[in-house]
Design goal:
208 residues, alpha/beta, seven-stranded mixed sheet, three-stranded mixed sheet, 25% helix
Length: 208
């Protein structure tokens, strides 16, 4: 399947946060230009790739996609249908970011403006990630060195610290968002062992 080129700005002389913001803007604009049909077609390819990545994992943490992210609604259903428990991000007490168990697509509800739909059941803090065998997360860019560019809130970087050693961690991105150069990072940014493209699982250098 053909993919359009992603043209990223030159960030060589920029401070870390300025560089990140410029890269985010470029990727977001490129994602907005992708057709709905392309997003849907790719989402179906991702299902078998992600299920292969999860293997015999019994408990999985994933995410519900926003409009222009790699679509995960069907993927969430297939993960659950394969017999795995699936945790998804949700609002917790005091608008904290937490996790809840997926009980089917019809259970997902938008709890706050601008947020993706989320489970309606109890909220669990990041400590619940100590029970997961694999974690699928969103990203905007990932380098072959395992550096991840997210949306900027830092929530996933903090959450990953609660995962147990040996947890399989992969980021879902479009093929053109996997890059061969270093991304701007700081000490709080967590490296990602695996990149999940629609038809390929890539091992970054930190897991090689």
């Amino acid at each position: 399947m053909a993919h359009s080129s992603l043209h990223l700005p030159n960030i060589e002389d920029l401070e870390e946060e300025d560089a990140k913001q410029l890269l985010r803007a470029a990727v977001r604009e490129h994602r907005r230009q992708r057709s709905e049909k392309s997003r849907q077609d790719l989402s179906q390819l991702w299902i078998s790739t992600v299920l292969d990545f999860l293997g015999d994992a019994k408990t999985v943490a994933g995410f519900v996609s926003t409009e222009f992210e790699p679509q995960t609604f069907d993927l969430c259903t297939m993960i659950a249908d394969s017999g795995k428990q699936l945790l998804l991000p949700k609002l917790g007490p005091g608008l904290t970011r937490s996790w809840g168990f997926f009980k089917g697509r019809d259970d997902l509800t938008q709890m706050a403006p601008g947020r993706p739909p989320e489970p309606t059941g109890p909220a669990f803090d990041n400590e619940v990630l100590a029970s997961v065998d694999a974690l699928i997360m969103p990203a905007l860019l990932v380098s072959r060195f395992g550096e991840r560019l997210g949306q900027g809130g830092g929530w996933y970087d903090r959450a990953l610290k609660a995962a147990k050693p040996g947890t399989r961690i992969g980021a879902m991105i479009y093929p053109e968002e996997y890059v061969d150069f270093h991304l701007p990072q700081n000490d709080l940014d967590m490296l990602i062992p695996y990149v999940l493209l629609p038809e390929q699982i890539i091992t970054t250098t930190i897991a090689a």
